[in-house]
Design brief:
Layout (H helix, E strand, L loop, with lengths): L2 H5 L1 E12 L2 E10 L10 E2 L2 E3 L2 H10 L5 H18 L11 H12 L4 H8 L9 E6 L11 E9 L13 E7 L1 H9 L7 H10 L5 H10 L4 E2 L2 E5 L2 E5 L10 E3 L7
Parallel strand pairs: 1-6, 5-8
Antiparallel strand pairs: 1-2, 1-4, 2-3, 2-7, 5-6, 9-10, 10-11
């Protein structure tokens, strides 16, 4: 294990996709509270750190998945319930009242595993599709360093997202292109990884197309680096992972 891996925290992020007939799919975005230590005020996808309860549940629910991958998927499901009141990645149909009971239980400090047992629920971790993995180096001197896995999931039918009002202050559905346009107009901002992911997501109009794109490219760790290009310091990422934009001048890039 490298020093970077020992000093970073595992995290998971969920890109929740809602198809629209004849239009580009909408993605669930949340705006982080300006009081947060990481990505304060930024527009992000639901997500957060992988905790001990996620690892405990993964030990019994991973199936054929790698346990670390399973724990990250569980964290993405849990964080989406907490932050947006949306429950997905479950076996069968789960209704809104049950999701809200799960959310209340998580707020009270119970683990997702405890709540699944209480409500007779089980997970379908295959409902989450691996999309990307970002892990900035410690040399970037970021306030916090996360080894963050990104997953795609289809929005469940019959559920309505609601903001948690603690870590986040609002949420909305928007196509990737529209979210980028919102930020370019100065009505929101995104950090470097989110912008690169939105640019890639904007290439695919539907959940099916996004899933095909995700499976077309390896989910290698993206470890941005800095170099001089055309006389200007840029932050760069590899060019073989499906991203249409692979560098940005450092003076324009927003970091966590």
């Amino acid at each position: 294990m490298t020093d970077d891996e020992r000093s970073s925290r595992s995290a998971a992020t969920l890109v929740v996709v809602r198809d629209r007939p004849g239009q580009s799919a909408e993605l669930l975005m949340v705006e982080r509270s300006p009081a947060m230590a990481f990505a304060a005020g930024a527009l992000v996808f639901p997500g957060g750190g992988v905790d001990e309860g996620d690892h405990m549940l993964a030990a019994r629910a991973a199936g054929a998945l790698d346990v670390e991958d399973a724990a990250a998927r569980i964290a993405a499901i849990r964080e989406t319930i907490e932050e947006a009141g949306i429950g997905l990645g479950f076996e069968g149909v789960i209704d809104q009242p049950t999701v809200l009971r799960l959310r209340d239980g998580l707020r009270d400090g119970r683990t997702l595993g405890e709540l699944l047992d209480r409500h007779g629920l089980s997970l379908n971790l295959d409902a989450l599709i691996p999309f990307a993995r970002w892990h900035p180096p410690l040399s970037d001197r970021l306030r916090r360093v996360y080894d963050a896995r990104f997953y795609l999931a289809r929005a469940p039918e019959g559920q309505v997202a609601s903001v948690d009002t603690t870590e986040n202050v609002r949420l909305f559905w928007s196509s990737a292109a529209d979210t980028l346009a919102l930020c370019d107009a100065g009505r929101g901002h995104v950090i470097f990884p989110t912008r690169r992911n939105l640019e890639r997501l904007a290439l695919s109009p539907s959940f099916e197309a996004l899933t095909a794109d995700a499976r077309r490219f390896p989910v290698d760790k993206i470890r941005p680096w800095q170099e001089i290009r055309d006389g200007t310091l840029h932050i760069c990422i590899p060019d073989h992972l499906g991203y249409p934009v692979t560098s940005e001048p450092m003076e324009h890039a927003l970091r966590g």
